[in-house]
Design brief:
Elements: E1 6-17, E2 20-31, H1 33-45, E3 49-54, E4 63-69
Parallel strand pairs: 1-4
Antiparallel strand pairs: 1-2, 3-4
Length: about 70
């Protein structure tokens, strides 16, 4: 990952009522490379996460989306 990589946090929540899905909520927040590095220990340590990575050349990250599931 470089300072030119675009980094997004997706906050994702599903609301349930009994066994039915009542609603889905997604919110994307673009963060800077410096903020990502500063929050890196937080991202590794807590919650249920999923990461999507896009790379045009297969070695440098162009875009990264970190999906954080909200309980």
């Amino acid at each position: 990952m470089t300072a030119d990589s675009r980094i997004y946090i997706c906050y994702y929540k599903i609301d349930y009522f009994l066994d039915s899905i009542k609603g889905e909520h997604k919110r994307y927040e673009k963060i800077s490379y410096d903020d990502f590095i500063a929050q890196n220990s937080e991202l590794h340590g807590s919650g249920n996460k999923h990461v999507n990575v896009w790379s045009a050349d297969g070695s440098n990250i162009d875009n990264i989306v970190i999906i954080e599931w909200i309980e």
